[in-house]
Specification:
Helices cover 81% and strands 0% of the residues. The protein is mainly α. It folds into two domains: 47 residues, Homeodomain-like (Arc Repressor Mutant, subunit A, Orthogonal Bundle); 138 residues, Tetracycline Repressor, domain 2, CATH 1.10.357.10.
Amino acid sequence: MDTSERAARIEAAAYKILAEKGFKGASMLAIAKAAKASNETLYNWYGDKTGLFAAMIRQNTSVVVDELQTARATGRTGRTALREVGRALLTMVTSDKAVALNRAAAGDISGKLGKILAEEGRGRVLPIIAQLLEEAFGTEHDMGELTDCYISLLIGDLQIRRATGAQAAPDRDFVVARADRALDHVQKIYASLNQPP
């Protein structure tokens, strides 16, 4: 078994333990046993439990980073790339993995996991979205405001509704329609702001 297969097995075990015991109850030993790996391997690879969960968050957000790289490799920029990246982002944040990580962060009273989730998740993804929005709409807008508007239209309260169990995982048609609608609405909003009074 190669390193990537072992890492995938450890990650799967960590998600299972996380679902059963939450972040506080998820020990490196329990994850190692469930993954049929040594405790020493986990500590050597990840440092500690926080490092393991940070790696899981990075792996989860890599879906969006990968989609951007695919767009770039095929010459897509701006709105064209943002359509695909937006779909990837919405799929990722409403996935079972993201739900498990968000539930764990919400249950971690130390706030440590929430901070890592913000840094490794939102902190990695928002600059990508902002870059594409700038390509699509130019630099004359407040990029923080534009990015916040787009994210609000794209995700809204879907992620929290998934985390609380009030919303089932969206299907591909829903994701495509919502991502396209978010981009279309942002385009209408910001096009109207550029019109002379």
